[in-house]
Each structure stands twice: as C-alpha cells, then as structure tokens.
C-alpha cells in the first residue's frame, strides 16, 4: 500500500492554476499571431501581452488592490480580452456587466458586486448618466472610446483607456496567489427578483478552459478547434466569459477577431474578410445572419459553429448544413461556467443522411471530461438511459459556481443534495446523448435573453382592465421564444390586446423590465387553468396554447 504520509520534498514547488499561465504558450510559441477588432485595430499576441502588463500597471496606479472588483461595460473587443487576463492576474475580481439589463438592474449589480472601478464604453454613457448619482461603491471611471473625440459627460474620468495604457510601463511582475480566489463575477436573471451574482475562481476558469479544449481539440470528424482556426465570438463577452471560449482561443494561440456590437453587416464582413472558421451564437443570431442580403452570396463552408442559449431547430440546422456550416449544439448555464456538453457526432454518424444528422446535432449532447451529469427524479435517483425517461439535469464538475453571491438560501437550493440543479428537464439515450425536453423554471428565453414570466405577470396585473393573467413562453422561429400573456379581463372591461402591449412597453421604456418584452403577444381567455391546490398550471397552459 502507498504511504500517503510520505513527507514532501523541501525543494518541491507549488504551481497554482492561475489565469496568467494561459498566456504563456501563445506568447512564446506564436507571438506574431493576430488579434483583430472590427477589422480596423490589429495587434499581435506579443503586443497583447505587453498591453495586459500595461493595463495591470494602470489598475494598480489607480489604487486597485487584490480583492477589489473591476467592472466593465463594453461590447466584444480586444480591450475586454485584455481585462479577462489583467484584472484577475493582479488578484482583483472582474465584473462583466450585462449591458442589456435595464438601468435599474445594472445599478443593482454594480452596488451588489461592490464595484470599485468601472471601465465604460462611450456608447453606454447615457445609460450610466441615468444612475450615476445613485452608485455608492465606484471610486473611479475609465473611458473606453473608439472615436478620437472625447464625448461630453458629467462623469469625472480617471482617463481614457488607450492613453492610460500608452503612459504605463510594459512590464509587470504578476504574483502567485491562492488559485481559489474569486476571479470573475457576473449576474444572471431568473424567474423572479433582481439578478443573481455567480462567481468563479482562477482554478475553475483554468479547469473549464482545459475541459473545453480537451473535447473541442480532440474531436475526430467535425467541430474541432485547433491552432489554424480563426476565432470570433458571437455571444457577448459579458455573458459567462463568452462561454469561456476566448480563454481557450488564447491558450491555443489562434487568430482572434472581435466584432464590437453585433451588427449583421459587420459580422458577415468579418466572417468573410478575416476568414473566420470557429464561432458560437444563439439561434436568433444565426437566423438574423441568414436573412441578411449579404449572406445570400457568401460561402460559409469551413465555418464551425456551436449553437447554445436556446434550442437549435432541425430546420435551422439543415439550412446551416446546406450552406456548408459545421453546426452543432453546446449546453450549459450561467452557473456552470458554462459548457457541460457538446453534440459532437461520431464518424459513423457523419455518414447519415442530413435529416438524421440534424436530429443528433440538435440534441443537448454528451458531457465534457470531468463532468458528472445525471438525469434524475425527485429523489435524485438516476433515470434509465433509454431516451424516454425524463428527469431534471443535475451536475457536478470542478468549474461550477459555488453559489450565488451574498445569497446563502438560493445557494443552498441550487446545490441541494450535493448536485447543482439546472432546472432543465431532459432524457438521455444509451449512447449518452442528452436531450432537453422542458424547463422547470418559468422563464422565457427571447433571442437568448431571459424574460421573467412572473415579472411580466406582475406588470400586466397592474392594468385596471385585467382580472387575471398568466404568462408563458411560446416557440418562435425567429426569436426562439416570445412571451404570451393569457388574460382574463375584468367584467365590463374593454381593454384591447394593443392597449396591454403598449402598457408593457412603457415599463420597458422606463428601464424597469427587459426590452425583449416588446415582443409580447396577448390572448384573452375565459379562465386560467389551475392545479388541484389552486395554483396556475403552466404545464396545462403550455399544452393548450404553446
């Protein structure tokens, strides 16, 4: 038997899993590789490393200490990538602000995360001006600006990003520290209440990167991500680190392309001119690209594309395949860092007819290494792998969030029974492929954005003409889902569908609720179906109206 009490050799060293380690190989092995922003700003990996060092010096010079929180409001950019590294590499916490939240929600996340410094794109200054006077924790602001002119603002900036970097030293000695310190925080919206903060350690981000790299880099027939690829994210960097793929791309040393704000013309131009070969997006974005006139003359062959955030329909999958796109599904959630599964096909499956391939590519997929994913009943007993027995997906992996920031009760519910509860209902077949069939939560996902049905119900119920309301999500080819309000009018009321839609839109215009609610559809009914204990039966409502 091995002796586990053997003393450690005095000269042995600790090698913590830190984000700085993921910069080593590309900088040394291929320092000339490019990083591109909107086709106009280009620099090499060697220059990126230098800029990361300069940014570290800027942050420390502004008084940032280990444990402080640095917030960023930006579109996908080279600057964001530099923050992905420099902020945690000095021991600080990176808060990636979801700029699609309402101003009130953004204010909540800034204060809840206790942000110390805020880096803000000039485009978001009007939004920030609305809440600036109520921000309690931020001690300084840095301007991120694509234009030479400095925009007018009441905010007293510490400086402009590029000017600050230019004046800073290109050398910084990044220290070692505990790999379990918090590296990132961001906020996810759920079924009710304010957004919840999830967080990840340096160790977790490194392990997630290695896990994703192992499954994408070892793919046999398709969906392989390798050093000759050209990478461009089309899911926001503020959302779960753009699925963590920028870390994978940097560790591989591939050419990276960042598009800024997602505009179809820019995305298609970059795919074509920069010869992008690997991306990820929600179905709505792909649908939007296909409908653009420029896409009709483009050759998409050679483009590998992970679809997530909402279910990939067989019709959209087949259209992508017909255009030469190697499309497949990935699955995860904010709380899981996020990737848990990918729907890679075996070489034998790639010989199947397109319709049969599409059915597999649209599944939730098989797990990454180190992921313990189970489909279980209410007692946490695993369901048979027969493709028919449904249960909730629960999961364990070394990169899952430990809980919700400052919310012990919600964290306990998330990890009840020692597994993270996803709230997704699925089946699993004998080959290990998971397929989500429903959600236990009543949130509605519109264009990859969560819309709370309970929040919408609360708003609509305030209309004087509404007696009762229930909101469900219904499938939509373009948006993935859209909210449907089932309304019982008050007796004698003459309220119309148009009037209720306008009523909800006013709340969106005020920033009280996600602007995706403008896609609301209204349907008047005589009664709302109830369960045996008098609660609204959304299962029944979905069966009747979805």
Your description of this structure?
This protein is α/β, with parallel strands linked by helices and 546 residues long. It has 3 domains: 19-281, ANL, N-terminal domain (Rossmann fold); 370-439, Luciferase, domain 3; 443-545, 2-Layer Sandwich (GMP Synthetase, Chain A, domain 3), CATH 3.30.300.30. The protein has 17 helices and 25 strands. A 7-stranded mixed beta sheet has the order 7-6-5-3-4-8-9, sandwiched between helices. Helix 2 crosses helix 6.
Level-2 CATH architecture of the largest domain: 3-Layer(aba) Sandwich
Distance between the termini: 61 Å
Biggest sheet descriptor: 7 strands, mixed
* Strand order, sheet with most strands: 7-6-5-3-4-8-9
Low-confidence stretches: none
**Residues in helix, %:** 25-40%
Strand % is 15-25%
Give the C-alpha Rg: 24 Å
Shape: globular
User: Counting H and I runs of at least 4 residues, what is the number of helices?
Assistant: 17
Tally of DSSP β-strands: 25
CATH class of the largest domain: Alpha Beta
Mean pLDDT: 91
Q: Specify the structural class.
A: alpha/beta
CATH topology of the largest domain: Rossmann fold
Give the name of the CATH superfamily of the largest domain.
ANL, N-terminal domain
Oligomeric status = single chain
What is the total domain count? Answer: 3
